[in-house]
Amino acid sequence: VTPVGCLVDGRPAQQVPLTDRGLQYGHGVFETIAWTGGRAQFWRQHLQRMQRGCERLLIPMPEPERLWQEVKQVTAGHAGPAVVKITVTRGDSVRGYLADSHSPARRIVCRFPWPERQSPAEGIRLALCRQPVGYNPSLAGIKHLNRLEQVLARQEWRSPEFGEGVMLDQQKHVISGTMSNVFVVKDDRLLTPVLSGAGVEGVIRGVVLELAEKLGIGSQVAPVPLHQVDLCSEMFVTNSLIGICPVRRFNGKEFASPGEVTATLIEQLADSLEQ
Ligand SMILES: Cc1ncc(COP(=O)(O)O)c(C=O)c1O
């Protein structure tokens, strides 16, 4: 899949220099955004996470208005659906880890076609990945460019039988999917892994927790040992492109797909997008 439109620092381009610190060290952050109905879905939340990531990685955050103008430029004339990806790197260094305090951040804003394969309404099966997620509180939560754990985990299955893979930390606690956040439902209450030591704080994860509160559905953000998933009645995964995707089977356990709580949240998420 090639980007259909791409701006690098505001100019049409398909390349970055060899000196880019995103390329050299993964020194950067990115956001993958659903562009539908002529709108960037959950734009505010994506920008907030990007801001947190830039602060953590000591990258000067680009002006939000500038990013917005660039998103409008790559999507001009397209109502969607499309995927907009924004990458911000720490700019250039000839060599060496020390960043030049004067070099500006680099902005890469691209539009991609919407993925053809949609997640099926009847739910997906999840693989259990062997690749663990490392503990690192200073990088946890943000969407930085170093995604090697997810890259390795994603090579573990090729069969279309599995729609996503679940990743655990060294203590065998569920952290997330390779490209999504994980929720389970037990006794009509939501449970999702705490991400203070690993994982990405997904935009849709945040939206789901807010919707649950609004609807009076109890929710808990806590460690989720793998064996606890067996005791749950529903499971779903979330990200900006799939939204909320019910899970049919994981680790030898069949789930209601979609279960009642999941179906309610899917409906509410769709409603909140129409507003
Ligand atoms: C590792 C990981 N966790 C979670 C998510 C979900 O994030 P969001 O809801 O912001 O798309 C992603 C999205 O790509 C991801 O790669």
SSE inventory with pairings:
Layout (H helix, E strand, L loop, with lengths): L4 E4 L2 E2 L8 H5 L2 E9 L2 E2 L2 H14 L7 H12 L6 E8 L16 E8 L10 E5 L19 H7 L7 E7 L5 E4 L3 E6 L2 E5 L9 H13 L3 E4 L3 H4 L4 E6 L3 E8 L2 E2 L5 H15 L1
Parallel strand pairs: 7-8, 7-14, 11-12
Antiparallel strand pairs: 1-2, 1-6, 3-4, 3-5, 5-6, 8-9, 10-11, 10-13, 13-14, 14-15
The chain binds pyridoxal-5'-phosphate.
Concise description?
By secondary structure, the chain is an alpha+beta fold. It contains seven helices and 15 strands. The two termini are 31 Å apart.
Fold and architecture overview:
Helices cover 25% and strands 29% of the residues. With 275 residues, it is of the alpha+beta class. The longest helix has 15 residues, at 260-274. The chain binds pyridoxal-5'-phosphate (PLP). Pyridoxal-5'-phosphate (PLP) binds next to helix 5 and strand 13.
Return the structural class: alpha+beta
Q: How many beta-strand elements?
A: 15
Helical percentage? 25-40%
Low-confidence segments, given as residue ranges, are: none
Separate helix tally: 7
What would the average pLDDT be, to the nearest integer? Answer: 96
Radius of gyration: 19 Å
Order of helices and strands: EEHEEHHEEEHEEEEHEHEEEH
Shape type: globular
Ligand names? pyridoxal-5'-phosphate
Estimate what percentage of residues fall within beta strands: 25-35%
> How does the major sheet shape up?
9 strands, mixed
Please report the distance between the alpha carbons of the first and last residues: 31 Å
